[in-house]
Amino acid sequence: MATSVISYLVFFACFGLSFYAISSIQFEKVCSVKNPKKVQILMFLLSLCLAYISSQAILQLTIYNGFA
């Protein structure tokens, strides 16, 4: 129970940080799309993937190995 709550908290923290970091990239210049909603969806999906990978790495290095 406690491990799953910690997992969710770490994931949401990583999601916020990754969305903040990815928002600094100007995708409008890289992707030539006329609909800015597509760029926002791309940013959301990229930050979701980055949050999952980083949270799993943090949890693997700490909680799942018995450090907490």
Automatic annotation (TrEMBL):
- Its domain of life reads Bacteria
Q: Which InterPro entries match?
A: DUF1146
Q: Where are the transmembrane segments?
A: 6-27, 39-59
Q: Which terms are listed as keywords in the entry?
A: Membrane, Transmembrane, Transmembrane helix
Protein name per its UniProtKB record:
DUF1146 domain-containing protein
